[in-house]
Amino acid sequence: xxxxxxxxxxxxxxxxxxxxxxxxxxxxxxxxxxxxxxxxxxxxxxxxxxxxxxxxxxxxxxxxxxxxxxxxxxxxxxxxxxxxxxxxxxxxxxxxxxxxxxxxxxxxxxxxxxxxxxxxxxxxxxxxxxxxxxxxxxxxxxxxxxxxxxxxxxxxxxxxxxxxxxxxxxxxxxxxxxxxxxxxxxxxxxxxxxxxxxxxxxxxxxxxxxxxxxxxxxxxxxxxxxxxxxxxxxxxxxxxxxxxxxxx
Amino acid sequence: xxxxxxxxxxxxxxxxxxxxxxxxxxxxxxxxxxxxxxxxxxxxxxxxxxxxxxxxxxxxxxxxxxxxxxxxxxxxxxxxxxxxxxxxxxxxxxxxxxxxxxxxxxxxxxxxxxxxxxxxxxxxxxxxxxxxxxxxxxxxxxxxxxxxxxxxxxxxxxxxxxxxxxxxxxxxxxxxxxxxxxxxxxxxxxxxxxxxxxxxxxxxxxxxxxxxxxxxxxxxxxx
Amino acid sequence: xxxxxxxxxxxxxxxxxxxxxxxxxxxxxxxxxxxxxxxxxxxxxxxxxxxxxxxxxxxxxxxxxxxxxxxxxxxxxxxxxxxxxxxxxxxxxxxxxxxxxxxxxxxxxxxxxxxxxxxxxxxxxxxxxxxxxxxxxxxxxxxxxxxxxxxxxxxxxxxxxxxxxxxxxxxxxxxxxxxxxxxxxxxxxxxxxxxxxxxxxxxxxxxxxxxxxxxxxxxxxxxxxxxxxxxxxxxxxxxxxxxxxxxxxxxxxxxxxxxxxxxxxxxxxxxxxxxxxxxxxxxxxxxxxxxxxxxxxxxxxxxxxxxxxxxxxxxxxxxxxxxxxxxxxxxxxxxxxxxxxxxxxxxxxxxxxxxxxxxxxxxxxxxxxx
Lengths: 248, 223, 370
Description:
The structure holds 3 protein chains of 3 kinds. Chain A has 12 helices and no strands. By secondary structure, chain A is an all-alpha fold. Chain A has one domain (16-80, 117-241): MetI-like (MetI-like fold, Orthogonal Bundle), CATH 1.10.3720.10. Chain A is elongated and about 70 Å long. Residues 1-12 and 238-248 of chain A have low confidence and may be disordered. Residues 1-5 of chain B have low confidence and may be disordered. Chain C has helices at 46-53, 76-81, 98-102, 104-108, 113-127, 143-155, 173-190, 201-207, 226-231, 236-242, 246-250, 273-283, 302-307, 329-338, 358-366; strands spanning 4-13, 23-31, 35-39, 61-66, 69-70, 83-87, 161-165, 193-198, 210-215, 219-224, 266-268, 287-292, 295-301, 322-323, 343-348, 351-357. Chain C has a 6-stranded mixed β-sheet, sandwiched between helices. In chain C, strands 2-1-4-5 form a 4-stranded antiparallel β-sheet, covered by helices on one side. Chain C has a 3-stranded mixed β-sheet with strand order 11-12-13. In chain C, helix 5 packs across helix 6. The mean pLDDT of chain C is 87.
C-alpha cells in the first residue's frame, strides 16, 4: 500500500484540523486535496455521464410507449440497495485478469450500477405521469411521435429527470470514497490514512471534505437545473415529484 | 510482483473456505448482528419520528427532509467522523447504519398509516373503539404491508452498508473483503462479497414471506 | 310511535374558523322505531347532525337526548357501542374477514366466542349473506355485498339506534333499490330507530316514515311524513328542493293494492265469444283480457273477437303489462306507459288479481291518504 507523504506530517490529536486545512501543501502538490478531489470528481463525472447516456434513452422510450411498468417497480427496491462495496470487490479480480488494472474499473462499474436505478426510474416515472391530455392535444395538432417525446413529454418531465440526476450524483459522490479502500485514491484517502495512522485530524478533515463535496454536488445539480429548465416547467415538479415511485 | 496474476491466486480457493470456516462464520454472525442492531435501532427511531410526523402534519416535511439529508452523508465520512467520539467500536458502526435506514423506514411508516382509508378510521371510531384499540387492531395491521416493504429495502441496503463499516474494524463480511484486498488474496474477498449479497437476498426473501404470512388479506392485491 | 327515542334540542354546531354555523338551533324529535331521513343540499349540515348524535362531532351548543338521557353525559365509547353506524364508503376493515368484521362490536363487548359466532351467523342470514362469504375478505365482495356486511356489522350488538350516512350512495341504482327494499324488510322485523342521511329525495320518500328537510346552515325547513311533504311543502325552499315532479313522486308512496281496482273486461277462455262481445260493449273497451284456470294468459283485440269461433283460438298479445298488488303506483304507471295498453294486470302470485288503469292511478293521487 502506498504511504501518503502528506500523512507523515502527523498532527497532534484534536487541534490540528484548521492548521492542516490552512497549510497550502495540504491542498496543492501531487497528493494534495485538489488533486485527490479532481480524481474523485473526474470519476464521478464519468459515471454520471455514462449513466445518463445508458439510462435516459431507454427510460424515455419505454415510458413513451407505456411499457416496462414491472421493470420500474423492481428498480424501486434495487435503487436503495445496491451493495456497491461488495460489487466493486467482486469486480477487482475480474478487472485484473482482463488486464484492466486494479483501478478504476471495478469502482466505476459499481458506481454506475448505483447510479442507474434513480436515473432510469425518475425519467420513466416523470414521462409516464405527463398529463395524457397534453400529449393527446399535441398529437391532435400534428406533432410526430418523436416531437411528442422530445418537445412535449421530455420537456415537461425534465424537472423530475433532474431530481433523478441529483439523487444519483449525490449517491455516487457519497459512495466514491470507498475507492480508497479498494486500492485507489480520491478524496477517501484521508479517512483511510487517518484510520491507518490513528490520526483524528486526517479522519475528520477527510470526512468533512467528502461531506462537503456531496453537499456541493447537490447544489451544483440544482443550479444546473435552474439554468436549463424554464420556470413554468419547474413548478410542475411539485406535483410530479411527490408521486409514488420517483426517488427523491 | 502482483500475486493476482499468479495461478496460485484463483478467484475462489475452496480449500480456504473449508479451512477458514470458523472465521467466515464469525464474520457472517457479526454481519447479521450489526444488521439487526442497526435495523432495530432504526425502526425504533423511525417509529418515533413517524409518530411525530403523523401527529403534527406540519412537521412531516421537515422530518422526511432531515432523514433524506442524513441519507446523503457519505458513509465513509460518517464512520470517520464518529471515530473520535465512539472509537472503533460497534456503536460507531451501528449509529450511522441505523441513521441510513431512517429515510426508508420513516417514509414507509408514514405512507402506511396514511394509506388507512378515512372511512375505515371513521367506522372504527363510530363503533366506539378507543383510539388505542383502533391503532393496534386496525391502523397498524393495515399499515403493515408498507412497513414490511420498507423493512425489506432497509435490510438489503443495511447489509450492503455493513461491509463499509469494515474500515473502522467492524463490518462482518466486509472485513474479509478488506483482508483479501490488503493481501491481494482474492478468496476471502470474493467470499465476503458474495456472502454479503447472498445474505441480503436471503433476508429479503425471509421478510417477504414473513410479511405475506402476517398479511393474508393483502394476498390478492399482491398477486 | 309517538315516544321519542332521540331528541335534538336547539342543536348548534359552529366549526372553528367558519363564519356561519353548520347546524343552527336544530330541534327534532325522532320517534322510537321509525326511520327519519335528513335531506337537503350540500352544506345543509345533515351529516354533521348525524355525527353529533354518536358524538363523532361535539355540538357547540344545544343538547341531544337519547332515551331521555343527555348523550354528552355518557362515556363516548359506551354510547357509540349502543348506536349502529353505517356510512356510504362502508369502511369495512380490509384486513379482517367478513365474520371478524361483523363480530367487531360483540368482541369489544367481550362476548363469548360461541355467542359471537352464533350472532354473526344470524346476522348473515338476516342481511342475505351466504355462509361461505363469512370467511372472505371485504375486497372479495361486490359493492352491494360489502354494504350488507356494513349493515350487519352495525346491527351486531343489537343497538336500538342505527345511524346511516348515505348508506346506498355508492352502489348502482338497481342494487340501491334492492338494498332499500331489504332495509324496509329488515325494519319490519327489527323496528329500530333509524336516522338516515341522504341526498336522494326518492330514497327519503321511499324508506322514511318522516323526512326532515334542512336548508344551508342546518336550518330545519320542514319535518313531515313523505306524503305530506310532497303534497304540501311548507316553504318555497322545500317546494323548489322537491322539484316540479313532486306530485309524481307521491306515486312512489302508494301501492296498487291500496287502489279500488276492478275486475275489468276479463273472461276465461272457455267462455263463448258472444259473452266476450257483450263484455266489450259494456266496458266500451278495445281489448279483452283472457284468463285460463285463474291465470292471466293475454289480451285479445275486439276485431279478432268479432270473427272468432272460440276464445281459445284468439291471437293473444303477450306479454301484458303486469304489476303486483305491492307495486308502487309509480312502477305501475311506468309499466303501463311502456306497454301498448292503458291498463295493467295485477298478478297476485300467479293468479289474476284484477286490472289497474291510468285513470285509477290519477284519481289515487287526488286524496292525501292511501
